[in-house]
Amino acid sequence: MGRESGPGMAIGSNGQEKLMSKLSVKHLLGIKDLLPEDIQLIFDTSSTFKEVINRPIKKVPSLRDITVANMFFENSTRTRLSFELAEKRLSADVINFSSSNSSVKKGETLLDTVNNVLAMKVDMVVVRHSSPGAPHFLAARTKANIINAGDGTHEHPTQALLDAFTILQKYGSLKGVKVAIIGDILHSRVALSNIFLLKKMGAEVMVCGPNTLIPRHIESLGVKKELSVKVALNWCDVANVLRIQLERQDTRYFPSLREYTQFFGINKAMLDSLDKRIMVMHPGPINRGVELSSDAADSSQSVILEQVENGVAVRMAVLYLLAGNN
After folding, report:
1. 63-92 burial string, b = 16+ CB within 10 Å, else e?
2. What fold, for 157-304?
3. What is the chain's alpha carbon radius of gyration, rounded to the nearest angstrom?
4. Which residue of 3, 27, 91, 278 shows the fewest CB atoms closer than 10 Å?
């Protein structure tokens, strides 16, 4: 890039800079806090950054003087690597924190851990934690921008943004698109964030899975409920398939994985039997042969790897826009 680009500016496809609007929030704690205009701004900025990461030179100096700490108190592969790559593509200084190798094991509190990191002059914190509300707790007590990378079974806002951005790229609009979220709705932060975002942007949403894995009163969020995966697939334009989160389940919600697969697993033969071609999504990691067969996951209808690529662009956009609000 010829000219330096800083927070508050966007890089146009012709290399020119243009003034951008700002997000209405200082932190990205959840989709529930965003306005539709915020979501659209993130999408527009993501489109710009998707062009950037597909150029021969994939790096821009937008966050050259910004330091970002990735603080993951839960295991993660895709989200952690995606954020780290997004930060490096923006030329930010990056430090990575893992609770398994930290003073958390010695009894240090979340707030003390974060404050010690912030004392090293960190500007932004990307946090994943098993406790719902942990990012909100930090946002109320620190000056840094906080980005929620998943808090318990509450929200996972950047996953919902990249999922919706992937749908948007195919359909051109989210308004009126029918999205079925299929699987373990009860324990999924991805499901809740997707519901909030899709409803805000005018999509129709259905949740499908065993009755024991669908929260009570979910229909109060304006979504349809369906217990038959075949009905859900015939209804939808997009199937966002979620894995069974056995690590969050303290009781048995269905007899066996084999029985779950028999009644709710999706395979290529089921997709081929539909009278239309639908998009298949999955936030990962996939339990192949359980919620999704390999022939379905690897089919031409699957956009799972596109989701991964879009995740970098979307997270670049979120980091960039939040840094502009400092």
Report:
1. beebbbbbbbbbebeebbebbbbbbbbbbb
2. Rossmann fold (3.40.50)
3. 20
4. 3
Q: Distance between CA 265 and CA 232 in Å, rounded?
A: 12
Q: Which residue has the tokens 């007899």?
A: 255
| Residue ranges of domains in the chain | 9-155+309-323, 157-304
Mean pLDDT on 49-55:
95
End-to-end CA distance of the chain: give it in Å, rounded: 24
- CA pair distance 107, 94, nearest whole angstrom: 25
Residue 94 pLDDT more than 70?
Answer: yes
- Tell me the two tokens of residue 71: 């603080």
Q: How far apart are CA 94 and CA 167, in angstroms?
A: 30
State yes or no: pLDDT of 5 exceeds 90. Answer: no
Q: pLDDT digits over 21-37, tens only?
A: 799 999 999 999 999 99
Instruction: Write out the DSSP string of 122-135.
Output: --EEEEEESSTTHH
At residue 3, φ and ψ (nearest 5 deg) are -110, 150
* pLDDT at 111 (0 to 100): 86
- What tokens does 174 get? 């989210």
What is the CATH architecture assignment of 9-155+309-323? 3-Layer(aba) Sandwich (3.40)
**Does the pLDDT of residue 301 top 90, yes or no?**
yes
Distance CA 234, CA 228 (A): 10
Alpha-helix runs per DSSP H in the chain? 36-53, 78-89, 110-118, 134-139, 157-171, 189-200, 229-235, 257-264, 268-272, 294-297, 304-323
Specify the pLDDT at position 255.
58
Neighbouring-strand partners of residue 147? 28, 126
pLDDT of residue 206: 98
| Entry pTM | 0.89
Nearest-angstrom CA–CA distance, 116 and 127: 15
